[in-house]
Design a protein that fits this description.
binds pyridoxal-5'-phosphate
C-alpha cells in the first residue's frame, strides 16, 4: 500500500483535554477509489481536503453511507478495536441497500490497521479516551443521472474523542410527528440521509429543552425504536428490555454486546416490542427503573427523563444502576482490563 506521511505532525497543537467531538482529525487518512468495476488497494496520505466534482452524485442524491467505531489504548500501550468485523459487515450491508458496490475485507482492514498504526500517538489512555474511526463511502461519479453511480470513493478518517456527552444524563422527547425510518426504508442502514432527516426534528426537540429524540414507529408512533445515534434499553422491574432490531432500527454493535454482557452476568434480557403506553404505565407504577441509550459514540448513556406530549417523566437512579454496571463491564472489555469476551477485542499490531 502506498503510504505518504506528513512532514510535521499537528499533534502537539491539540488540547486533548478539551476536544469537541468530530472537529479535530488525525494526521492521516485512507482513500480507495472504485472505477471500472473494482476498488483500488488504496493509499494513506496526509489528512487534507479532497477535490470533488460539483456533479458528484452523492451531493445530489445522497448515495453515501458510513460507519463509526472506536480504537482504545490499554494501560500496556496496546491498541484495540472493538468488534470491527461487525462494523465491516454492517458497512457492506448499508452499501448493498444504497446500491453501492461492497468493499473487500482486505482493503477495508489493511487501510484501517495501517492508519491506526501511523496515527497511534493520537490515541490516549484512560477510560473515556478513544480514537473515533469513521469509514465512509460516497458516489463520486461526475454525472447527475438519478441512478446509482459507477464511481465511488471510500475513505477512513479518525478523530480523537472523549465520551460524547461526558458523564451527563440526558432528557429525551418521544417523537409523535416525525419519523426516522419506515418499513421497507433505509433505517437499518447507516445511510447519510437518515441523519440529515433527523436534524430538523432534533432541532425542534432541543428548542423544547431536550437533548435527543426517541423515535417511534412511523405507523402509530407507539412502538419504541431508538434514539439519536443510540439503541435503547429499559429496566422494567428487574428485567432489561430492548426493542428487536428491524428494517427501521439500526442493528447496533453496542446493543448486541450489552445483551450478551447482561446475560453473561445473569441479568434477564427481553428483546420485544416496548410501547409508549407500557412505558408510561410502568413509570406510574414505579416499575420503570432505568432507561439508557447505547452506541459507539456514547457507550452507555443514562436517560434521566422523557417527555411525551405535555408531560415530563423523571427517573431517579443512583450509582448502583444496571446501566453503570453494564457500562463498566463494557469499558473493561474495550480497554482490555477484563478478560471477558476476548474474541471481541481486535488487537492492532
Ligand atoms: C441510528 C443509530 N442507532 C444506533 C447506533 C448505535 O450503533 P453502534 O452501537 O453500532 O454504534 C448508531 C450508531 O452507530 C446509530 O447511528
Amino acid at each position: 500500500m502506498k503510504i505518504n506521511r506528513v512532514e510535521n505532525s499537528k499533534i502537539d497543537s491539540i488540547d486533548f483535554e478539551n476536544l469537541t467531538f468530530g472537529k479535530i482529525f488525525t494526521d492521516h487518512m485512507f482513500i480507495s477509489k472504485y472505477k471500472n468495476g473494482e476498488w483500488s488497494p488504496g493509499e494513506i496520505k496526509p489528512y487534507e481536503n479532497i477535490s470533488i466534482s460539483p456533479s458528484a452524485r452523492a451531493l445530489h442524491y445522497g448515495q453515501a453511507i458510513f460507519e463509526g467505531m472506536k480504537c482504545f489504548k490499554s494501560e500496556e500501550d496496546e491498541l484495540f478495536l472493538f468488534r470491527p468485523e461487525e462494523n465491516f459487515k454492517r458497512f457492506n450491508k448499508s452499501s448493498v441497500r444504497l446500491a453501492i458496490p461492497e468493499i473487500q475485507e482486505n482493503i477495508f482492514f489493511n487501510g484501517l490497521k495501517e492508519l491506526l498504526k501511523i496515527d497511534s500517538d493520537w490515541i490516549k489512555k484512560g477510560i473515556g479516551n478513544a480514537l473515533y474511526v469513521r469509514p465512509f463511502v460516497f458516489a463520486s461519479e461526475d454525472t447527475i443521472n438519478a441512478s446509482e453511480a459507477n464511481e465511488y470513493t471510500f475513505m477512513i478518517i479518525c478523530c480523537p474523542s472523549k465520551s460524547y456527552y461526558g458523564d451527563m444524563e440526558i432528557s429525551v422527547k418521544i417523537e409523535e410527528k416525525y419519523s426516522r425510518a419506515a418499513k421497507g426504508g433505509v433505517g437499518y442502514a447507516k445511510a447519510a440521509g437518515n441523519y440529515a432527516a433527523s436534524f430538523y426534528p432534533t432541532k425542534l426537540a432541543i428548542e423544547q429543552g431536550f437533548q435527543q429524540i426517541i423515535w417511534t414507529d412511523s405507523n402509530n408512533h407507539n412502538s419504541i425504536e431508538e434514539a439519536g445515534t443510540m439503541n435503547l434499553f429499559f429496566v422494567v422491574g428487574n428485567k432489561l428490555v430492548t426493542s428487536p432490531t428491524s428494517d427501521s432500527i439500526l442493528d447496533g454493535i453496542t446493543r448486541k454486546s450489552i445483551i450478551d454482557i447482561a446475560m453473561f452476568h445473569n441479568i434477564d434480557v427481553e428483546e420485544r416490542e416496548i410501547t409508549v403506553d407500557e412505558l408510561i404505565k410502568e413509570h406510574s407504577s414505579g416499575n420503570l427503573k432505568e432507561i439508557f441509550g447505547c452506541g459507539t459514540a456514547v457507550v452507555v448513556l443514562p436517560i434521566k427523563s422523557f417527555g411525551h406530549r405535555d408531560q415530563l417523566y423523571t427517573l431517579n437512579y443512583g450509582k448502583n444502576s444496571i446501566s453503570s454496571f453494564l457500562k463498566e463491564k463494557l469499558n473493561n472489555i474495550q480497554y482490555n482490563i477484563s478478560d471477558e469476551f476476548e474474541n471481541w477485542k481486535f488487537k492492532i499490531n
